[in-house]
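Milestone 3.1: sequence recovery, worked example.
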């Protein structure tokens, strides 16, 4: 099964059915700004450095992947995330 969202294609691959992202060039025509926690920013910067990409490219990929997962799984995708987040907060 191939799932396409915008310019991102999720393709089954490998013996473990891992999904790979395939990007195509699209003109970016909008700036989107929001606040994040400093530890998340550090994680994104570390990922970008490891991947040889900009933080903006990493954020774009994560947003597209999350949006595609939501499109495929619906609100259950977000419910699982928020449920885990709430458990983590209670354990602190």
């Amino acid at each position: 099964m191939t799932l396409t969202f915008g310019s991102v294609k999720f393709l089954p691959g490998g013996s473990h059915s891992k999904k790979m992202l395939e990007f195509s060039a699209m003109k970016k025509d909008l700036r989107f700004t929001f606040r994040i926690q400093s530890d998340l920013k550090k994680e994104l910067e570390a990922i970008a450095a490891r991947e040889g990409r900009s933080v903006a490219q990493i954020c774009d990929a994560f947003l597209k992947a999350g949006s595609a997962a939501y499109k495929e799984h619906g609100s259950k995708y977000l419910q699982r995330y928020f449920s885990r987040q709430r458990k983590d907060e209670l354990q602190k």
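Confidence is low (pLDDT under 50) at residues 1-8, 12-20. Strands lie at 3-5, 8-13, 18-23.
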